[in-house]
Amino acid sequence: MKTILIVDDEPAARYGLRKALEAKYRIAEADSAEAAREALPREQPDLVLLDVVLPGQDGLSFLRWIREQGSEVPVLMVSALDTAKTAVEALQLGAADYLVKGFELEELRQRVSTLLKLATLEKENDALRRRLTTEGQFGQMIGRSAEMRRAFEMADRVAPTDSTVLILGESGTGKDLLAQEIHARSPRSGKAYVAVNCAALPETLIESELFGYERGAFTGAAQQKKGKFELASGGTIFLDEIGDMNPVTQAKVLRVLENRTIERLGATQSISVDVRVISATHRNLQAEIRAGKFREDLFYRLRVVTIELPPLRAHKEDIALLAGGFLRLHGARLGRNARLKREAMAAVEKYDWPGNVRELKNALERSVVLSRGDEIGIEDLPGEVVHGEAISRRHSGEELDNGIGERDFREAKRKFEVAYLTKQLASHRWNVSRTAATIGLHRQSLQEKLRELGIRRPGREPLEEE
Fold first, then answer.
1. Closest CA to 34 of 58, 53, 17, 15
2. Residues with Cβ < 8 Å from 156, sequence gap 6 or more?
3. Any residues with CB less than 8 A from the CB of 183 and at least 6 apart, and which?
4. Residue 367 Cα distances to 260, 316, 339, angstroms
5. Which domains does the chain have, with CATH numbers?
6. CB–CB of 318/142 below 8 Å?
7. Which of 105, 212, 214, 336 has the most CB within a 10 Å radius?
8. Beta bridge mates, 280
9. Which of 393, 341, 387 is closest to 367 using CA atoms?
10. Can you tell me the distance from the alpha carbon of 40 to that of 52, in angstroms, rounded to the nearest whole number?
């Protein structure tokens, strides 16, 4: 039998609520917020009926306290105050529903029944998510290898908390998807999820993007703008590729984590922010610390919980599972029942996939589009997959023909440009803006040259342009 805790200072009101509900539920009572605090662990209620007006601590303050303790017990607020402001505040604090006194008893029974059913469904959904996690599924991500299940289970355990999470893994392993699912399983899931690619933002813009600015803070600041931290308040901010963040911005992010406040550029006052921070990087941050490129104090703030996503070559047993999922996805969009022939699957499983899961997904999309029928043969796969030679190896600066041996000047110039630009891009992690600044070209000029020469990032990933 479900238990309902009635919190109301009026004995007559408690008596009426008890008589209306005791035929179907076990009833516990408290005449104040203080008494209810003692009753919660003792009675373990499935639902709380909470009056707004109470002696001592009022009902809204008690509701806030319940949520601060991490309890998700449904709370039905009951009040004689028929004001929209009170109702809205109660719902914002986490109340499941709001009733104004003078209601019909049948309406009360219906509301209670509905809330208990919803709570039961939520528990069943949580149990199903946990089972799927142990079986190798975490939101949009799948993987049955021991490494992936370990990552999924850790993410599932940390999701309901407010702990800071650091996700490690190569580009294309799914760090962004993991961060999204952690947010979706957290108490903040109904609030904002704001993602920031720290590597894609120039140093001159990253602070204004993260912290915002006041009107007139710099040339071109015609009006006030909120930053990403402010926009994410109440929810989650995902700082992708935080290892590429400059030291000055690192110091300001550290202050946000320590004080939970930000300052817009050009402002004189701090603004409080309530935000959970999830960060990710492909870099070895401990090596970056030794090299003086990353703050050690920020590193320890970020890595309260660390989750590592392995490269695809380290869990090849998941390739067939992933390939099947991507083929269904692409096939459904194109109205095809796509599948890999045996020799094509063998090539896909043998290849090392330097661009990881993202490269696999894109390669299979290309194959589905180009194949003449539903069956994808080895001839439909990208050449590097068939021959087992990654683009990154073919285009490494040392091995690429630099054109010195060419007799024709134009061909020698073309080969030199390909070798030179490929090596420069690789040394800047294929970030176009940074490469252009280093070699003395405008970003647009470099982009045009890359298109002209047909240079693409390893794994056929889009170039990071800004």
1. 58
2. 129, 130, 133, 138, 185
3. 159, 189, 193, 235, 236, 238, 276, 278
4. 48, 20, 10
5. 3-126 (3.40.50.2300), 142-310 (3.40.50.300), 313-389 (1.10.8.60), 395-460 (1.10.10.60)
6. yes
7. 212
8. 167
9. 341
10. 17
Is there a contact between 54 and 7 (Cβ–Cβ < 8 Å)? yes
pLDDT tens, per residue, the chain with 466 residues: 899 999 999 999 999 999 999 999 999 999 999 999 999 999 999 999 999 989 999 999 999 999 888 888 999 998 887 677 888 888 888 899 998 888 888 999 999 999 998 888 877 776 666 665 555 577 889 898 989 999 999 999 999 999 999 999 998 999 999 999 999 999 999 899 999 999 888 877 888 999 999 888 887 888 889 999 999 999 999 999 999 998 889 999 999 999 999 999 888 889 999 999 999 999 889 988 998 999 999 999 999 999 999 999 999 999 999 999 999 989 888 888 999 999 999 999 999 998 999 999 999 999 999 898 899 999 999 988 988 765 544 444 444 556 676 666 777 787 888 888 988 888 777 888 888 888 888 888 888 888 777 787 765 444 544 4
Q: How far apart are CA 51 and CA 79, in angstroms?
A: 5
